Predict the 3D structure of the following.
Amino acid sequence: MNKVEIWNFMVETLSQVDLMSANEKDHEAALVYHFYSEVESGGHEGLLNWLSDYIEKVGSTKYFEDLSQYLEKIDASEYAVIERTYGEQLWKLFKALEADEKKEDAFYEVIQKADEAYYALEGKLEKRLEAYFSQIYVMYLKQ
């Protein structure tokens, strides 16, 4: 398989993973992929909207810690720093915003900072995911 075929195969495979019941290997790959996919398409606000049920169930501390560890594991530590810096704060503001629209300005101020930090890295995460997918895709072919 070439890089494009591997990418497409992994996206299709990981899109079907249930984060709540996934084994460790699937959970790691799917969590990092969903992070990338959601932030790329809708920024951190899109990420929180898309994964809010999951984050609520596992807890924001566990979610952002797992995500940060998995990002570091694929050599994307600069993204882990962003999530450690803004993740918990964003989640708290996201939940506060649900209860009180007066928190909107504070929420979007932090969203802007997190998104700017993410996009300033100019797509490095996609390259890291491509390399990671190239290392692990064979395990998924056997399933």
